[in-house]
Amino acid sequence: DHGVSSSLFQNPAKLHLTLGTLVLLNEQEIQKACDLLQRCKEDFVDQIAGGKPLTVEVAGVEYMNDDPAMTDVLYAKVHMKDGSDRLQVIADQLVERFVASGLMLKEWDRVKLHATVMNTLFRKDPSAEEQNNTVTGKSSFKERESFNGRNILKLFENFYFGEVQLDSVRLSQRFSSDASGYYATSGQL
């Protein structure tokens, strides 16, 4: 379909749920975020999660904008297997704490639980040289070009990706990779 290419897909090693974005400018701010994450674990995460990983199901796809013919982000929907709202509560409370600390700006009333599968920001400019990625740490692209997601949405609206055990919250560094292929991590619980 128009605008669809393999470069739009998220690297499987980097699949994740984004709770929010932080701008941490120095080691002190990174340490403050790590300390706050540990306090959240003690204050509410362990209690809500019962000290165990949360089993979530990933099923169905949705898109972020208004027109499926002009899609920029396609994501997999995520929900707790047991039907509870524990993951949503943990996500919302984490964001609330980080906003209150001044480390995060408040964007929404609740966290939108999703796993990005396709994103036009990942689109590579075929005329750019691959080595540019290693210099800037970002993918090279000219301008965001939407894709027609209507057929994908029809074919995969109820697609069952599977279930996964969520067992950590990480402070991941954008445009980075560790030895496993996942984002380099500044801290985690």
TrEMBL record:
This is Activating signal cointegrator 1 complex subunit 1. Pfam families: AKAP7_NLS. GO terms for biological process: DNA alkylation repair; regulation of DNA-templated transcription. Coiled coil: none annotated. GO terms for cellular component: nucleus. Gene3D superfamilies: Cyclic phosphodiesterase. InterPro entries: AKAP7-like_phosphoesterase, ASCC1, Cyclic_Pdiesterase. Residues 3-187 form the A-kinase anchor protein 7-like phosphoesterase domain.
